[in-house]
Structures
1.
Amino acid sequence: MAAKKVDSLYKKRSDGRKMDEIRPIAAKVGVVPSADGSAMFETGGTRAIAVVRGPRVLHPQNKRNPQKGILRVSYGMMPFSVWDRIRPGPSRRSEEISKVSEWALDAVVDLDAFPNTVVDVFIQIPQADAGTRVAGLNAAAMALAHAGIPMKEMVSAMAVGKADKTIIVDVDKDEEDFHDGEGATDIPMAITSRTKKITLLQLDGKISTEELKTAIEMGKKACGDVLEVQMKALKEANTEDKE
Amino acid sequence: MEKEKRQLVIPGETIVSGNSFLPGESTYRDGEDVVAAKFGISEVTDKQVRVIPVSGAYFPRRGNTVIGTVIDVTFNGWLIDFGGSANAFLSLNEVHRYVNRNELNDFLDIGDSAVVKVWDVKAKGIDVSMKMRGFGKIEGGMLFKVNPNKVPRVIGREGSMVKLIRGATGVNMTVGQNGVVWIKADNIEKELSAKKIVEFVVANATMSGLTEKTESYIKELGLEIGEKAEIIEEDTDKDEAKEDKK
């Protein structure tokens, strides 16, 4: 799975990483003490915070599900998260990411015990350098666990991609904007921790079937690394109640 | 209950393997393995495996004492908001004294607070009662909220911490499992110092030797550690302490 594709125009990564190497990760749980659950997740220059509130009674009433509780995810980038100001408020892009994140997390949370309620997950990006939706998902999964929401397993996410003909893991902004040759392809993906099922897979760009398979395999491996960091952060967060 | 193994687990993590184990609360079976379905401390007793949550929102359980606020008066009871996932229903029949059916809001009106016991937790909602001693409408004093996960520490073993605070400040104090604390005394100074002590306990909940630390903090405040015997209303604490041990 080493770097290959002899005549690719993308030979070396700007930060000196190997092609299948992820950026340095940091994670912390309990960053917003007043919330039911919260977490921070950071890969390189991308940082996401997630806050969970609930389960709580859902308004408006017509959105309620009498069978089970619903999950509601809201994603947003802060105005100062990139060099140009981001206009605050919902946008086409943020609505899309909220929805796919919701689907990715909905596969693991189990809200059967809380009918007519909602669990709100708020993802905010204070600092962005590509891969914000996967960073947000990682933070959200930790925050949900921290909030004591019943979950079958965890979710870990990572973006893989392709710059010209080279498959790379954890795409940063420079690589996302790579225009030479075949250009750049971005594939954010999320894997569950136990059953290793894919709960998010998006593709922006061009890629062959064979290359996609390789990319997904590399992504799965990277998600394993992410999971370790998530577990460590959660276990460190709770030194209390040791008796 | 003998505890064999206690460890912090995250959702999806295998706690034990083997068909002889029964998946209990917040766990599920996946093939041979018993897997955690919540973030918390796993407890493996003889055959049963369960996970006790260590953080997050408050989930009511039968027998809990909670303090809530009336948000609606219906034709046969009251709806009480205690900060949980659903509102609690207090039926007219579960009140310790006679209340005229047509004048429910003479007893409890919207905005009033009450100490109630969780009687039943169903998918439809939560039923509460105030028939036992120590429960009822809150009149006077002050209410404030602490992290519900720290409540066992505020109560202490067998209610020891509550007794300590009562003894030192001479207040009447009830701690709801939902994190709401009610303090009442004959003057506000006592209430404020009791609140300070509770906040100290919450802030230092993870430390070992918490009782000694609290005692020295009480002395710092210029108070004395009073007699623990002068408390009459003990019923509620005992229930809470029991719940906390479970």
Note: The mean pLDDT of chain A is 91.
2.
Amino acid sequence: MRHLLGTDGLDPATALAILDTADGLKRTLLGREVRKLPTLRGRTVITMFFEDSTRTRVSFEIAGKWMSADVVNVSSSGSSVKKGESLRDTALTLAAAGADCVIVRHPASGAAHRLASWLGHTGTSVVNAGDGTHEHPTQALLDMATLRDRLGGVEGRRIGIVGDVLHSRVARSNVHLLTSFGAQVVLVAPPTLLPTRIADWPVGAAGSLTVAHDLDPELPTLDAVMMLRVQAERMHGGFFPSAREYAITYGLSEARAAMLPEHAVVLHPGPMLRGMEISAAVADSPRAAITEQVANGVHVRMAVLYHLLAGEEEAV
Amino acid sequence: MPPRPRGAPEPAGQRELLSAGDVARTIARMAHQVIEKTSLGASGARPVVLLGIPTRGAPLAHRLAARVAEFSGVEVPVGTLDVTLYRDDLRRRPTRPLGQTALPPGGVEDALVVLVDDVLFSGRTIRAALDALRDVGRPRAVQLAVLVDRGHRELPIRADYVGKNVPTARTEEVHVLFTETDGRDAVRLHRAGDPE
């Protein structure tokens, strides 16, 4: 694997290999005092975040450090981006400075793909850590790892993705990955927060993708429900009348959570808006796997770095 | 692969070094040596832990432990120790899948750890195993048991228990087969590139 740009086009065998590696790493590090492996000694990983982030950036940084890579963090404020340097020049600079892998988050959809094509001749790997409303592959992989832990797998399972699908790269990446592993995905959202032409989304042959506007009738059928954050920063205009109305119609309250089957898992990619898309009581309940998602995130990102950087270099 | 009838000619470039019976006898002999050298069962003897290195060191460790228990009456804890993340040749090969690490419940702290692998060649796997072992605890001492020592060491490493010494050419390959992983027991010598 040279880059990880999205789950669309990620072949299921590779995705499975990454998940198995993540699982192995998790078991290897379990209960250890020293959580450090020498595997990526001497490799340099640069995170380049042009959008705010807590868990993704920290998780990549910890992942790199636990594998003994040298991790350097660049953010748009405090870098030459502020002086007007282009994304391309910044990336070429980082590659020339010796980055073996650049992890990029950018508000523009497609930024990671552009970066990968600009860095094509350098041998530097690119990981998409979220590009606009397009993809966030490591989030989908860590969600899958969490669902494998909790449900044993997703084949034939019904997974609801609820909320602001329109602006959600997490939803897109998850739909590709979940359906390629045979899950039945249902997107639940008001019509204003659903993208057009969902029917054109690539769906794995073994899985299926459907759309619903009412949450309550779906709840009893779900094995897992993934609540999405309402992304106010990407909303320019009225997508719903008020936050209160959204919370009442699409928020996962205690009463709604009680309608889920006993075994159903509640996921949230974070950051959570408690009281908006999820109530505090549900977020802190045992069926919520939100902190497990974060813990799995580190192992999944270690696995991604392992698959990108530890093997023989592929021909450029 | 079905067993070759007795007396049938070997495929060109292949030679069976140990038959299934030889493998069983060799492991039994190694078990006796482990019991003797570690003073197993004697009062004041250090606890012994066998750690197999995946893939084929793992079944070998379990068999060795079973024989040790049979001959000495002492149940020795067995585990596996994956060394993939500690290898120094990761970048020379396509990405390797990880093996399983499963330490026995008591861990390795202050124990006499016997690392178990199928073939000892360059010694690099054992070097990686020593590094991996350092990260999971501090054994009192570490020993090494291998079914086949084929020579060509690249590091100052030697085995404490050797099932069979086999002089080989660098271009040859030694394949250890176990029922658990390969459907039958045997040790075979192949010229490089020959199909199994």
Note: Helices of chain B lie at 20-37, 57-72, 124-136, 179-182.
